[in-house]
TrEMBL record:
This is Major facilitator superfamily (MFS) profile domain-containing protein. CDD domains: MFS_MCT_SLC16 (cd17352). Residues 1-49 are annotated as: Disordered. Belongs to the major facilitator superfamily. Monocarboxylate porter (TC 2.A.1.13) family. It comes from the Eukaryota. GO terms for cellular component: membrane. Keywords: Membrane, Transmembrane, Transmembrane helix. The keyword Disulfide bond does not apply.
Length: 479
């Protein structure tokens, strides 16, 4: 999400009807007017090359590149759970309390995403590979400098702000790449690539915990920075964009902002992150409140990533069968069920490990299915611009989520210490499922208006009457 990458897709499709109204939920236009708009707005044959998607070939090497990017950004970032557990127990920095360390974790996840529109502009000017190279250098410098931090504010700036900025510069350009290479296999390709975060998370949680125990927290940070930096250069060598036309650079797109689909997507991002980041960061600490060791806690955190590695491709296969939105809805229904039925009553290690594996496989579905969902909502040209705007909200929720989680933790150190936190996470996942159900109804209603027009070309000019989604409550069409 090169100069011509989909991430900078801020201009309209060249032949789109300039008089077509922006998409919004309203009851103004009649079906006849909507049909007329559709007839006026197909993309011209000059755009055929970009929309003749190969569905394989070199695209599988691009999948590997995005897999490595995910492993060394989202996956590596999940390793903060072992640092959080260590900081909370050891008091590494004088004056630091649980809210400081939780906020640093939230910043490492969210700050870069909040700055996504700026990353989008930079990406448009310098291209995909230079942006990722810059991000790799920033992330390396952030973790290396964090390993020499002596004051709390230095940790805020390095492991918090700079680490997150580097991660955004690396990860965000990759989000708009895969839809350019895959059509029928888009869901499974996205899910395989998203599984990289599981591999990276497992590796960094377990390996850095061992380094931390033997050499201390600062050597763990140094080892992680070097390993990430080396692996990212393989991804840089492999990644490639298919977009050939120069696209105007834009921080935002008013047509996207006026779209009802965008605000449904925003709600999806917010409520999902309230549950996701809590489970991602807190499992090591939760396991320790049950009376187990720090290493057993790190295994629990790693199990989340093991589940991610095996679960996301399965979710991708499901999405290919039933549609990305429907698969996401099913996944988050089960996330809510497992949180209420397993985390809340958990009193032993096997239950925690089982919960972590199941949640790892399901709760990151947003990252596996967001590329195909966004291409349905906005079309290929606007997908990455819409991403960058949605990431502001996703990053803000991710920034707040760990602080909320620790604020809900009680002062006791027993098994019920995280009870309010677990209830909050379960409710967040349930709300995510509700939002996805609304998104599904909205897309089905818009598909009715679109007729045979391909969603990759864009349905942004269509207006969905407010009542029309209600006609699809019992519609089992795949979407």
């Amino acid at each position: 999400m090169p100069h011509t990458n989909a991430m900078t897709g801020a201009q309209d499709v060249a032949s789109q009807n300039p008089t077509a109204l922006p998409e919004k939920v309203a009851d103004q236009p009649s079906p006849e007017n909507s049909s007329s708009d559709i007839e006026k707005s197909p993309v011209s044959s000059s755009d055929d090359d970009e929309f003749q998607i190969p569905d394989g070939g070199y695209g599988w090497l691009v999948v590997l590149a995005v897999f490595l990017i995910n492993a060394n950004t989202w996956g590596a970032n999940s390793g903060f759970s072992i640092y959080l557990a260590h900081y909370l127990e050891d008091g590494t920095f004088s004056g630091g309390d649980k809210y400081d360390y939780a906020l640093i974790g939230g910043m490492s996840f969210g700050i870069g995403l909040i700055l996504a529109p700026g990353v989008n502009v930079l990406h448009g000017y310098i291209g995909t590979k230079p942006t990722i190279m810059l991000g790799a250098c920033v992330q390396f410098a952030a973790l290396m400098m964090a390993s020499f931090a002596v004051n709390l504010w230095q940790l805020y700036m390095t492991q918090g702000v700079l680490q997150s900025l580097g991660m955004a510069l690396i990860a965000l350009p990759g989000f708009g790449i895969l839809p350019q290479w895959f059509k029928k296999r888009r869901d499974i390709a996205s899910a395989i690539a998203a599984g990289g975060s599981g591999v990276g998370g497992t590796m960094y949680n377990l390996a850095m915990q061992k380094v931390l125990e033997k050499r201390g927290v600062f050597w763990a940070l140094r080892a992680q920075s070097i390993l990430i930096f080396g692996l990212l250069w393989i991804a840089i060598a492999l990644i490639r964009s298919r977009m050939k036309k120069s696209i105007t650079v834009s921080i935002y797109d008013m047509e996207v902002l006026r779209s009802a689909g965008f605000w449904i997507l925003v709600m999806y991002c917010i409520v999902c992150m309230f549950g996701y980041v809590i489970v991602l960061y807190d499992m090591a600490a939760v396991t320790k409140t049950l009376g187990y060791s720090a290493y057993q806690g790190s295994i629990a955190a790693a199990m989340v990533q093991v589940g991610s590695f095996f679960g996301r491709p399965i979710v991708g296969l499901l999405a290919q069968k039933v549609g990305a939105v429907t698969a996401s809805f099913i996944a988050y229904v089960f996330c809510a069920i497992f949180t209420f039925s397993m985390w809340i009553p958990a009193r032993n290690l096997p239950t925690m490990y089982a919960y972590c594996i199941l949640m790892g496989g399901l709760m990151g579905t947003i990252f596996a299915t967001m590329p195909p969902i966004s291409s349905k909502l906005f079309g290929l040209r606007k997908t990455a611009t819409a991403y960058s705007m949605a990431w502001i909200f996703l990053g803000s929720a991710g920034l707040c989520s760990p602080v909320i989680g620790l604020a809900l933790k009680t002062d006791s150190n027993g098994p019920t210490a995280y009870l309010p936190c677990s209830i909050f996470a379960g409710c967040a996942f349930a709300a995510t499922a509700v939002v996805l159900f609304i998104m599904r109804l909205y897309l089905l209603a818009r598909m009715d208006l679109a007729g045979d027009l391909d969603a990759d070309v864009g349905h942004m000019h269509l207006t969905v009457p407010l009542h029309k989604p209600l006609n699809h409550v019992f519609d089992f069409t795949l979407v």
